[in-house]
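User: quick one, sequence for these tokens?
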């Protein structure tokens, strides 16, 4: 199995130029790298609990806040003209300058900005664009600014490596292109950056940052963008990554908040990401070069609403809208490299590896497009606090989406958690979705989708299916509460290859028409109750033992007709009662794995298993899961 060896920081190079620091360090993020959801679940799922983190230590990071003053620094007098640097050395800038250019090859520079203002009406303000071998360290003292108003120009452009450190601040504004463009590695430690750009705020081969503040006031494209070199012809983890540790990052962008070609790794800090996309009707498709499949929104009042792909045929071209460009919160994309014939070919992160890894931090994401999207490889959330509002999916990957911890609140989404495989082993999760709350679906026909819930406290409120798998659903632990749709076209639980409950506590309510109950080869007993008359929203549904001792109760958030309950207390031979408020809805004795009570409507034969296949209960009204 291929494993990532992730460069912890290109930060170490900052001080190596000026007196030594140790070699660039590398670490292996352990169990994150390798292993993924594959294969078919047959009757019982693997235990998905456990830690998938190998701790990083402070030794992995270099303290680069030093070197803020040097007796050997050459003071550069303020000037309206462009300052040209042609020799290695340490230079101090204080006051106003008309620009800085590095006009010799392979320069190794330490620039101390101490209240410096660099403004270029023409060209690049800090210009190392022709110097591939440059290694530049900028130490910040006090408040500093770099501005380029030239059309089509970056404010900062370093062809080699750039590191920013110190305890000061730097504002960078580009009126024509990127705020900071670095052709090799960019490293940021301790300092504070404020950025505005017509294009990307930060664009580099790779971006590493620690204990700093990055505030993107506006960007016409991505806030942070890490792309592999144009000459790269095969997948590598030596470039194209974004690695942020204890960073306070805020952005307002028209593109992605954070975009990487290979890996995004986030651990600690605060992230406030706002992305705003531009919608155009399908009649303008040719003007923007957008694929027909991308027109999946309709206008609803003053806003836009995502619809399912199979619903788009109901609308004419002028009623369908698509986004002009991607504007996801956090994204790892598929990479296209030129092959030997100079034709693009797609190289993706291998399925067994994680391309987005979130270990901790506080995340507030308000995105027009997906909030967090691993377009190749796997997505792992091991911790952190999330508040997500999105027009599309909240947490999604094309392969495995795995959650082992954290507090996740999705206030608005099309689908809440989505992947070819979805595995939840921990965390507190609250999802509001206009379609499916949790969905396992894939366009890859070799994928046998599954949803495995082995832990966590999960609450779903969905207008589509509450929990939907194009393959199987297996619950082994945790608590899952599902408020499904009120219309009969969807259901609280839906799985093409059946639902197996082997542990945990399940409470799911929905309509009658498409009810799907767990399989009779589940290891834990299940109650399936239904009535033709609707149970009103805000009714307290309570399960008690025969003597009235409460087992648990839930206040339903919307009207329902079907109630599915499974918990360890539903022991075989036990007698129980189900109440709606003060009214007893039913009394029953458990004599088999599936106990069906009440008017089952169109449910058919609950708890049945398809012949020759996975042991799962489809019942009448079974239909394919929604992708």
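Assistant:
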């Amino acid at each position: 199995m291929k494993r990532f060896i992730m460069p912890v920081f290109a930060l170490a190079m900052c001080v190596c130029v000026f007196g030594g620091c140790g070699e660039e360090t590398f670490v292996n993020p352990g169990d994150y790298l390798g292993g993924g959801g594959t294969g078919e679940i047959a009757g019982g799922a693997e235990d998905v609990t456990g830690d998938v983190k190998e701790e990083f230590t402070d030794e992995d990071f270099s303290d680069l806040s030093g070197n803020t003053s040097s007796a050997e620094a050459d003071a550069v007098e303020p000037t309206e003209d462009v300052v040209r640097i042609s020799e290695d050395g340490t230079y101090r800038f204080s006051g106003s300058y008309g620009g800085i250019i590095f006009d010799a090859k392979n320069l190794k520079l330490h620039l101390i900005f101490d209240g410096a203002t660099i403004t270029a009406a023409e060209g690049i303000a800090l210009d190392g664009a022709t110097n591939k071998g440059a290694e530049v360290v900028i130490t910040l003292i006090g408040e500093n600014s770099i501005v380029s108003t030239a059309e089509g120009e970056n404010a900062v452009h370093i062809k080699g490596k750039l590191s920013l450190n110190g305890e000061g601040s730097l504002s960078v504004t580009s009126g024509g292109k990127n705020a900071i463009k670095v052709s090799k590695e960019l490293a940021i430690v301790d300092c504070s950056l404020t950025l505005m750009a017509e294009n990307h705020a930060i664009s580099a081969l790779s971006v590493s940052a620690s204990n700093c503040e990055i505030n993107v006031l506006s960007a016409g494209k991505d806030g942070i963008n890490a792309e592999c070199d144009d000459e790269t012809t095969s997948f590598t983890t030596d470039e194209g990554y974004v690695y942020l540790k204890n960073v306070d990052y805020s952005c307002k962008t028209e593109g992605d908040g954070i975009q990487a070609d290979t890996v995004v790794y986030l651990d600690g800090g605060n992230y406030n990401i706002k992305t705003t996309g531009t919608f155009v009707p399908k009649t303008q498709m040719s003007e923007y070069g957008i694929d027909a499949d991308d027109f999946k929104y309709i206008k609803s009042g003053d806003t836009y609403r995502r619809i399912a792909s199979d619903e788009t045929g109901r609308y004419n071209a002028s009623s369908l809208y698509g986004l002009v460009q991607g504007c996801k919160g956090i994204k790892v994309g598929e990479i296209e490299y030129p092959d030997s014939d100079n034709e693009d070919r797609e190289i993706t992160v291998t399925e067994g590896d994680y391309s987005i890894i979130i270990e901790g931090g506080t995340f507030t994401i308000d995105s027009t497009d997906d909030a967090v999207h691993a377009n190749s490889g796997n997505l792992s959330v091991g911790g952190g606090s999330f508040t997500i509002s999105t027009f599309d999916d909240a947490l999604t990957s094309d392969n495995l989406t795995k959650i082992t911890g954290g507090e996740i609140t999705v206030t608005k989404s099309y689908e809440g958690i989505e992947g070819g495989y979805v595995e939840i082993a921990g965390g507190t999760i609250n999802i509001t979705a206009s379609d499916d709350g949790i969905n396992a679906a894939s366009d890859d026909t070799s994928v046998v989708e599954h949803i495995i819930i082995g832990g966590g406290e999960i609450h779903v409120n969905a207008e589509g299916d509450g929990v939907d798998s194009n393959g199987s659903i297996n619950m082994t632990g945790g608590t899952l509460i599902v408020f499904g749709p009120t219309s009969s076209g969807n259901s609280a639980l839906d799985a093409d290859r059946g639902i197996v409950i082997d542990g945990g506590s399940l409470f799911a309510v929905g309509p009658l028409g498409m009810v799907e109950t767990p399989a009779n080869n589940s290891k834990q007993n299940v109650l399936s109750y239904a009535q033709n008359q609707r149970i009103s929203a805000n009714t307290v549904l309570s399960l008690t033992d025969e003597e009235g001792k409460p087992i648990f109760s839930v206040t339903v958030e919307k009207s329902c007709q079907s109630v599915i309950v499974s918990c360890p207390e539903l022991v075989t031979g036990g007698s129980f009662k189900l109440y709606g408020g003060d009214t007893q809805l039913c009394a029953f004795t458990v004599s088999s794995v599936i106990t069906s009570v009440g008017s089952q409507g169109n449910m058919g034969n609950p708890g049945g298993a398809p012949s020759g296949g996975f042991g799962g209960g489809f019942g009448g009204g079974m239909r394919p899961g929604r992708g």
